[in-house]
Design brief:
The structure holds two protein chains of two kinds. By secondary structure, chain A is mainly alpha-helical. Chain A has helices spanning 2-6, 11-36, 44-60, 65-87, 94-116, 143-147, 152-170, 172-182, 184-189, 194-220, 232-242, 247-271, 277-296, and strands spanning 131-133, 149-151. Chain A is 69% helix and 2% strand. A two-stranded antiparallel sheet of chain A has the order 1-2. The model of chain A has no long low-confidence stretch (mean pLDDT 91). Chain B is an all-alpha fold. Chain B has a domain at 66-290. Chain B has 13 helices and two strands, in the order E-H-H-H-H-H-H-H-H-H-H-H-H-H-E. Chain B has a two-stranded antiparallel sheet. The longest helix of chain B is centred in the middle third of the chain and has 30 residues, at 112-141. The termini of chain B are close together. The chains are: A mainly alpha, B mainly alpha. Chain B: Keywords: Cell membrane, Membrane, Transmembrane, Transmembrane helix.
């Protein structure tokens, strides 16, 4: 029992929390932005897969790591625009369109990957992002190792969450996005263009999803393999509800979730074979459902979420 | 430019839309095939030949279509009432697991004539239970079923993995994680000798016809449609929508669970975690391509099976990655969504 508690005293646990949280932060912020404008984006799982693939492939072909991230963001935005085209001007069912995007983006990612990298024994690797030493902070005893031994994208993700919180909460653009997600007809009466705002929010949000996927291949691991996203996108969708559609809470939710995940990974080593490892692997998904359960009644859903907007049609 | 709802949809347009959509998808996928350097028309010809060129390839395609008909029906039935069951994949595995568990030598000790129907019902029941849970969360706590059914897929597959690594593990499988095989009596009779095609195919078609009859000719069928189109008005008309949803959830989950049971009893004889190459997710595409029509599901399931079985053969010959099959069906889904809008609306300047 003390061994299980001692885990919290290891800096490695907290460092792992930040590492595991990073793709979730990107993905959750992306999904949150889409939903705040009124559109559910279930394309997330596929967009993350494609981002992971295209980011890795860019670096593998000699590109810079940051260029890899840019490629993933652009590819994410492209799939976002496709989802936006289907759901905003055409008003297609957002559930089905999103699942279609997921199937399309992930199968296209596997296709392109297989074309670029013929089957081989061990998957080729790249040199991923290295830990970024922050002067002074990284040398701090315990805290330095626990919180300031991360790769650059992790810091970017955390800053982005705060920035997005500010953008949505305190700027005219953020207000515009929120109005469109609450009542697009009222937004139009105010002279806003709900269609343009939704398309923009989905494209930008999907770019963030692409970044979340690319973190997996450019920082967390150093190679790409099919099914590597492993439902993280769906976990992000659940985290958005848990966060009540607020960026700073999304950050906290992702960190909490990742802390639990990092903890169970270490707990597995302690309990060993006594408990089947599959039970531990199930925990993230079970936790997501519990998070939905806890927050479902309390959360303030954007009122126009999943309602297509058509001019002159109520 | 704006969309304006058509007062009435011409029948020819409604029928032509999915065909046009599939054509567009094949054209777009053709660009990808051309990028690999393979001849496009030859690739499509080989897909057709690999899927229908011989007796063995035809039976293989229909064998592959069988679970897709059932998962496609599962999704179609649910979506019609706006029950967003994205969990057919998990329900499939729960049905497969229960059928394999009860059908093994450690399971029910019954003669074949009684054993097979009981195993099918048990598989369907497992699938139904797995759909009732998320519906319960929706009705009781207001949790959207899309995410819960999706997450349950992962939980269920991990449960299968745990069982075939533990209590159900076949000691004779050289350490491979797979379940103890079912007894000889539990195997479904073959439809064509020396092939994999089994009577499950006929069961799937029979169920498609039955569901079509229920939807078109019974009060229950009308109610499920009304509840999907306008739940508020349906409630106002005195129909208990929640009760209706429970029934639809049982039917939908049951069909997906049955698909899993039939795949074990008809094809594999045991469960592994790669029993389904995404039958549950592909079922969504099958259902949408069919416009949620049960008879249409049979046609689109055979189409999708053709693409998958055919692409395997084409891939071996021309070196085009077989993932092209997934790309084609995903593009078909996206194209059919656009086509459906264009049949129901017209573009006005």
């Amino acid at each position: 029992m003390t061994a299980a508690l001692d885990l919290f005293a290891s800096a490695g646990l907290w460092a792992a929390m930040l590492r595991i949280a990073t793709p979730l932060i990107f993905g959750t912020l992306g999904a949150l932005l889409c939903e705040r404008s009124g559109v559910l984006n279930l394309g997330i799982e596929g967009i993350m897969t494609f981002g992971a693939m295209v980011g890795w492939l860019t670096v593998y072909h000699g590109g810079d790591l940051w260029l890899g991230l840019l490629a993933a963001a652009l590819a994410g935005a492209a799939f976002g625009l496709l989802h936006a085209l289907l759901t905003v001007p055409l008003g297609v069912s957002q559930h089905v369109a999103g699942l279609g995007i997921t199937l399309f983006a992930s199968s296209l990612a596997y296709f392109i990957f297989r074309l670029a990298i013929p089957v081989s024994g061990s998957p080729p690797t790249i040199v991923p992002f290295q830990v970024l030493q922050i002067p002074l902070l990284s040398n701090f005893p315990f805290l330095g190792e626990a919180l300031f031994h991360q790769t650059a994208p992790t810091y970017v993700a955390i800053l982005l969450a705060l920035l997005l919180g500010y953008l949505l909460g305190a700027t005219p653009l953020g207000l515009a996005i929120r109005i469109v997600g609450e009542n697009p007809h009222a937004a139009e009466a105010q002279g806003l263009d709900p269609i343009a705002i939704r398309v923009g929010a989905i494209a930008f949000g999907s770019a963030l999803m692409g970044l979340g996927g690319a973190f997996l291949t450019l920082s967390a691991f150093n190679s790409f393999f099919p099914t590597m996203v492993q439902g993280r996108g769906w976990v992000c969708i659940a985290l958005v509800v848990f966060a009540s559609w607020r960026p700073t809470r999304a950050l906290l939710g992702a960190l909490l979730f990742a802390l639990f995940d990092a903890y169970q990974l270490r707990l597995q080593h302690i309990v060993g074979k006594a408990v089947p490892y599959q039970l531990f692997l199930m925990l993230p998904y079970v936790m997501s459902i519990v998070a939905l359960l806890v927050m479902a009644r309390r959360a303030r859903v954007p009122q126009a979420l999943m309602q297509p907007f058509r001019r002159g049609e109520r | 430019m704006r969309l304006e709802r058509r007062a009435s949809v011409p029948v020819t347009l409604a029928v032509a839309a999915p065909f046009g959509a599939v054509l567009v998808a094949l054209l777009l996928a053709g660009i990808l095939i051309a990028m690999t350097g393979a001849p496009v028309l030859e690739a499509y010809r080989r897909i057709l030949i690999s899927a229908f060129g011989s007796k063995s390839s035809i039976t293989e395609t229909l064998t592959r279509a069988t679970p897709l008909i059932l998962t496609g029906l599962a999704v179609a039935v649910a979506f019609r009432t706006r029950l967003w069951n994205i969990g057919a994949e998990g329900q499939f595995y729960s049905g497969a697991l229960v059928a394999a568990m009860l059908g093994s030598q450690h399971g029910l000790q019954l003669p074949g004539a009684a054993l097979i129907p009981i195993l099918m019902v048990a598989g369907a029941a497992a699938g139904a239970i797995l759909m009732l849970a998320p519906l319960g969360l929706r009705l009781r706590f207001g949790v959207d079923e899309v995410v819960t059914t999706l997450l349950l897929n992962f939980i269920t597959i991990l449960t299968v993995s745990m069982m075939i690594d533990g209590p159900l593990k076949d000691p004779m499988a050289f350490g491979w994680p797979q379940s103890v095989p079912i007894v000889g009596d539990a195997f479904l009779p073959k439809l064509v000798s020396r092939s994999r095609l089994h009577i499950g195919f006929l069961i799937a078609i029979g169920l498609a016809l039955l569901i079509w009859l229920v939807q078109e000719r019974t009060v229950f069928g009308l109610e499920t449609r009304a509840a999907g189109l306008n739940p508020a008005a349906t409630t106002f008309a005195g129909i208990k929508v929640n009760r209706l949803l429970v029934k639809v959830a049982c039917i939908s989950g049951g069909l997906a669970g049955l698909a899993g049971a039939i795949e074990v009893l008809g094809v594999k004889g045991y469960v592994t975690t790669d029993l389904s190459p995404g039958f549950g997710y592909t079922g969504i595409i099958v259902a949408m391509l069919a416009g949620l029509n049960p008879i249409g599901v049979v046609v689109t399931a055979i189409f999708v099976a053709t693409i998958f079985v055919g692409s395997d053969g084409m891939s071996r010959g021309l070196g085009v990655p077989s993932f092209i099959a997934d790309v084609i069906v995903a593009l078909s889904l996206l194209a059919v969504l656009v086509a459906l809008v264009l049949t129901n609306y017209r573009i006005r300047r």
